[in-house]
């Protein structure tokens, strides 16, 4: 009896051990299998994305009610094309990629003529509040995959209003036809290049005299990191060949598209901060060096940076956070007027080493400074280059500036600057008061929206302009004085206006090592046309 009891207890213990092991291993195996399947699906999706002509993006949650263009089922997550607007579920992605064509950058043939192209209709997921081009009633009101949208002209049509003549009708490219580069135009230009003909100005779409194609250059790292979203929205409205990501292609290379377009007709929309605008203007200078002056574009700005002083000066606003629709931005680009911007050569010479080193020459668009604000900008730039993921918001960026400004108030690394700098305005020596910083202004705004030259506005000084051929030179007593000026509690130390500025200094590099320098800001560069709203 005792032996049988021991055996039954052993069997029970064995069963308990087996069940315990199963209860532990089964969830682990299920989790591992699900992870393997998910990784496998992700690899398949990436492979489709890589080989596809669509600009596919994956999202875990669509921002509006969406329906799969293949199975017509309601979907919460899946893939969407950033160019044509297709939306599909994960399981229908491969079928959609094979079945539907994306926007054609360049037509394989000119079809019915050099200026004709049929509509490219996509069914379902039409924009909210869109109206049918036939009956003028609202589209997309039914909770299902319904109605059509042309990916070029953005016109929408009800299912019941869609007739055969609309499917073959020539597309007019809609409201933004003056900004879009049609695929058939690029086909003609490609054929002309093969025949070694360069009279591109004779090939004008729609036989219009006011065609002004726009090229969009977006910096996805600027300010609040909205560049990625804007790239997709511009590709939806324009030809994808007109939209460039500056994190993947340099402005100098992107601007070569101007050489395939009519002379003096192109406008460039720079989506980024003042640094991005300066980068693009330097690329335009390179075009002048290459002898491409007749292809120089006009420049408009969509301010995505932290300070956006140049954008503010030219009337494009102090910052963009998505409050204005993309369609309105394109209208502003079309309606903008051309103005001129003074640009200056800054020559920095190291006075040591028996003058054997060549002077460094830079181009100045906004302002040039020596002192606490320059130190703040340098520290901010170094910090952002080291950890760019932390600088994803305009507010965070300004908080970092505030931190370095507060630090300088306590440390005062740039004190007694007037004892180390000799200043000349148009060749005349200027006696400097006790200062920590000197700022040379080309535009009206400074430091993220402050009218530095005017100060509190209680003294009768002429307004600073960006096209008068003059530089405004001011001094500041430190970081705290800069903060007072920004909230209009103090005036800067106005040192004068001049056509040339020379500074001879024995400064400290990083405020530790002596560095004798000679700085010379000389006559203007050739003025660059920039559009202002």
From TrEMBL:
<keyword id="KW-0443">Lipid metabolism</keyword>
<dbReference type="GO" id="GO:0008270">
    <property type="term" value="F:zinc ion binding"/>
</dbReference>
<keyword id="KW-0812">Transmembrane</keyword>
<dbReference type="Pfam" id="PF00781">
    <property type="entry name" value="DAGK_cat"/>
</dbReference>
<dbReference type="GO" id="GO:0016020">
    <property type="term" value="C:membrane"/>
</dbReference>
<keyword id="KW-0963">Cytoplasm</keyword>
<comment type="pathway">
    <text>Glycerolipid metabolism.</text>
</comment>
<dbReference type="InterPro" id="IPR000756">
    <property type="entry name" value="Diacylglycerol_kin_accessory"/>
</dbReference>
<dbReference type="GO" id="GO:0046474">
    <property type="term" value="P:glycerophospholipid biosynthetic process"/>
</dbReference>
<keyword id="KW-0863">Zinc-finger</keyword>
<keyword id="KW-0677">Repeat</keyword>
<dbReference type="InterPro" id="IPR017438">
    <property type="entry name" value="ATP-NAD_kinase_N"/>
</dbReference>
<dbReference type="InterPro" id="IPR046349">
    <property type="entry name" value="C1-like_sf"/>
</dbReference>
<dbReference type="GO" id="GO:0004143">
    <property type="term" value="F:ATP-dependent diacylglycerol kinase activity"/>
</dbReference>
<protein>
    <recommendedName>
        <fullName>Diacylglycerol kinase</fullName>
        <ecNumber>2.7.1.107</ecNumber>
    </recommendedName>
</protein>
<dbReference type="Pfam" id="PF00609">
    <property type="entry name" value="DAGK_acc"/>
</dbReference>
<keyword id="KW-0479">Metal-binding</keyword>
<dbReference type="InterPro" id="IPR037607">
    <property type="entry name" value="DGK"/>
</dbReference>
<dbReference type="GO" id="GO:0007200">
    <property type="term" value="P:phospholipase C-activating G protein-coupled receptor signaling pathway"/>
</dbReference>
<dbReference type="InterPro" id="IPR001206">
    <property type="entry name" value="Diacylglycerol_kinase_cat_dom"/>
</dbReference>
<keyword id="KW-0067">ATP-binding</keyword>
<keyword id="KW-0418">Kinase</keyword>
<dbReference type="InterPro" id="IPR016064">
    <property type="entry name" value="NAD/diacylglycerol_kinase_sf"/>
</dbReference>
<comment type="similarity">
    <text>Belongs to the eukaryotic diacylglycerol kinase family.</text>
</comment>
<dbReference type="GO" id="GO:0005737">
    <property type="term" value="C:cytoplasm"/>
</dbReference>
<comment type="pathway">
    <text>Lipid metabolism; glycerolipid metabolism.</text>
</comment>
<keyword id="KW-0547">Nucleotide-binding</keyword>
<keyword id="KW-0472">Membrane</keyword>
<comment type="function">
    <text>Membrane-bound diacylglycerol kinase that converts diacylglycerol/DAG into phosphatidic acid/phosphatidate/PA and regulates the respective levels of these two bioactive lipids. Thereby, acts as a central switch between the signaling pathways activated by these second messengers with different cellular targets and opposite effects in numerous biological processes. Also plays an important role in the biosynthesis of complex lipids.</text>
</comment>
<keyword id="KW-1133">Transmembrane helix</keyword>
<dbReference type="GO" id="GO:0005524">
    <property type="term" value="F:ATP binding"/>
</dbReference>
<keyword id="KW-0862">Zinc</keyword>
<keyword id="KW-0808">Transferase</keyword>
<dbReference type="InterPro" id="IPR002219">
    <property type="entry name" value="PKC_DAG/PE"/>
</dbReference>
